[in-house]
Amino acid sequence: MLETYAYKARDKAGNVLDGKVEADSQELVVARLKEMGFTPVSVTKSKSSLAKTEIKIPGLTDRITPKDVAVFCRQFATMISSGLTLLRALNILVVQSENPNFQKVLQQVKVDIERGSSLSAALSKHPKVFDHLFVAMVRSGESGGVLDEVLLRLSNTLEKQVEIRRKMKSAMTYPVAVLVLVILILTAMMIFVIPTFKKIFASLHGQLPLPTRILMAVSHIFVAYLPLVILFYVGATIGFIRFRRSKRGREILDRLVLKIPIFGKLAHKYAVVRFSRTLASLLRSGVPILNSLSITAEAAGNVKMVEAVSDIEVGVKQGEPLARRMALHPIFPPMVTQMVSVGEETGGVDDMLDKVASFYESEVEAMVASLSSLLEPVLIVILGSVVGSMVISLYLPMFNVYKLIN
């Protein structure tokens, strides 16, 4: 049974390193550290392995993120370019990885290589961690004898993808958070605030204004059927997640997002960045054009972009230039098509695509930076309007009472 061991060891320069590693016994940890060229100072069983009480949520706490893969690729590229063998580099990375699930994947990759498998073949056995882009670039680096250069190029690509994805998520998080806040406030008012006004209005013995009657009816539904309301919220959330993950759901939402003001432009530019950066990396690494287009379609991230790239692949098979088919799809701005056309004429399509990706990355960054300042007043107005309309509906009967008194 695997146990977690905390270790301290000295490298050849005399620096003390510490970390954690999973192994069957203390002796195996010592042997592994010596194999890596370290001198063990202490190896002790981690307290977390003596009493494992941590809560693991499947799909959340055990998830291997793109950032994990990007960090691994950068470290792996640095070690390979420094002259370390594949097995020694993987040994070090297994120990250094803080994600236990990623440790297991890397350990399995190392075992497959020890059994005579190539690095690309070993990585391809874990498609959920290492996608087709990763495997294809590694395979091209192996065949061309430039694995270190390809890994460095791949690490740059992955790091830029992680960074641009992080910025996109930050742009989307704010409006979603405000929407959730509005729903919580409305629900709390329906359950706790409005019923107290209902008792007051009952003593007036008069007909309430229409907005107030509607508000009271909705509040009655929330209070009387609270468990069902909670189930509705949970069901709607789960249903949306399942719909988003389904093929048909992704198609509908991807097309819908592109039509939303502001966010549509942001999603469009992000799709162009992913297309340009992925295709440029594959072409520069020596991957054939048809394979590059097929992999780029898988990594496009937007249904309309996938359809466009798939159509371009068909055109290239028939001998057409990239730019000619790209011009038929509105998702590619004219500037992108023209730059690819120039790249085909000069033999530098990968360079042109890199420039396109860099340009649109800066566009996305500028939009994200201005988005928060633009959305803040809009969302405040929306939140104020919703809450304010409820307050006005509650006080309309009060105004009628004042009129009668006067």
Structural notes for this entry:
The chain has 406 residues and is mainly α. Among the domains are: 3-45; 66-160, Receptor-associated Protein, CATH 1.20.81; 261-364, Type II secretion system (T2SS), domain F (Receptor-associated Protein), CATH 1.20.81.30. The chain contains 17 helices and 3 strands. A 3-stranded antiparallel sheet has the order 2-1-3. Helix 8 (147-202) runs parallel beside helix 17 and helix 13 (289-298) packs antiparallel against helix 14 (303-317). The longest helix has 57 residues, at 349-405. The radius of gyration is 29 Å and the shape is flat. 28% of the residues are buried. The model is unreliable at 48-61 (pLDDT under 50).
How many strand elements? 3
CATH architecture of the domain at 261-364: Up-down Bundle
Q: Could you spell the SSE succession in H and E letters? A: EEHEHHHHHHHHHHHHHHHH
Largest sheet: 3 strands, antiparallel
Strand order across the largest sheet: 2-1-3
Strand content: 5-15%
Low-confidence stretches: 48-61
Transmembrane segments: 174-194, 214-241, 377-396
Domain Type II secretion system protein GspF: 72-195, 275-397
Pfam families: T2SSF
InterPro entries: GspF/PilC, T2SS_GspF/T4SS_PilC_CS, T2SS_GspF_dom, T2SS_GspF_sf
